[in-house]
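Readers of this paper often ask what the protein records in our data store actually look like. The remainder of this section carries one protein's record, kept here as part of the documentation.

:::
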Amino acid sequence: MTRATDRVLILIFRGTHQVLSAEKRLKGGGVPMRLIPVPRLLTSDCGLAIRIPLDQRDRARKILSGARLLPVSAHLLRGGGEYDPVSF
C-alpha cells in the first residue's frame, strides 16, 4: 500500500535559472526536495526538475508563489514510472 508520504511530485520549470532559484527557496524553507533530471516522459526546456514529497505540496506552493517561481507543470509519479499531470 502506498502512503501519502511515499508519493512524489515532479515540478517542471521554464529554465535552469528558475529551477535553481526554486531549489534554493525550497531548501531555505525546509521542504525536503531533490534536484533530478527531467524524466523522459515529461518535456521541458530545462533538463532539470524538482522532486518533492506529495505531502509537502502546500508548503512548497506557498514558498514558490511568494517568490514568483511557480512551476509550469507538476506531475504525480505513479507506480510503473507513469506520471499524471496535477495542479500545483
